[in-house]
Design brief:
It holds the Pfam family CN_hydrolase. The protein is α/β, with parallel strands linked by helices. The chain is built from six helices and 15 strands.
Length: 276
Amino acid sequence: MRIALAQVDCRLGDVDGNLAEAERTVKEAAASNADLVVFPELSLHGYALGQVSEDRSVAVADARLAALSELGPDVLISFLEDGRLRRYNSSAYYADGALVHTHRKLYLPNYLDWEERKHASPGSAMRAYDTRHARMATLICNDAWQPVLPWLAAQDGAEVMLIPTNSAAGLAPGAVDTAAYWQDLLLFIARMQQCWVVFVNRVGEEAGASFWGGSRVLDPWGEVVAEAPQWSSSLTVVDIDVRAARKRRREMPLLQESRFGLVSREVNRLLEEAAD
């Protein structure tokens, strides 16, 4: 399988302009015989949604989104979804002009400079999904920082985890080194869930935030097999062997001892103790 990491910048609130850029990028990936193009989080809208004066959300059924996957490769595109009553930070997977799966970001950061809960509602489901290339799961940025979600995705059979992201550097004094955190986190996910990890971060400046890029792909042993440059737009194309996830899971069957009953009992106990 050949994956194209679309490490792009975007213009805040300019859906039409960002769609045009996405179309150009997908055509470029098609020329490289890519099977899938993965865009960063909110690549059609930009991140600082509080600075956009009007509602520019788009429905997942918008024909312009599906049309991107009619250019050759499958496409994972990310946007502010119009869910009628609510808005969601969503990533949708399209193939051959049809919607395959939508993931709505589950954990919306609302601390320091991040104010996502002001502009979007959290999703309510974590599902792996089948594509013609592999069984996959999508985790949007902060979703991947919640240890239970990659585990659930792997238990649901995901062999490839797609992680579209808006990760910035130096937003506040004393802030963590996000690039270093992501390096360790992606290594942990790849090794412990024994899967391919496809991390795609944006670049550019927006509302005082500097997005650092550094998109990459890790194999099920945790090795970085492709990496985009930091701070600049790029299209990085990499070939992966999906079967390697199954090979690794046979070599070291970490995921077989799921103990769902144990997990369920302890989660229910915590719910009864009002920890939710």
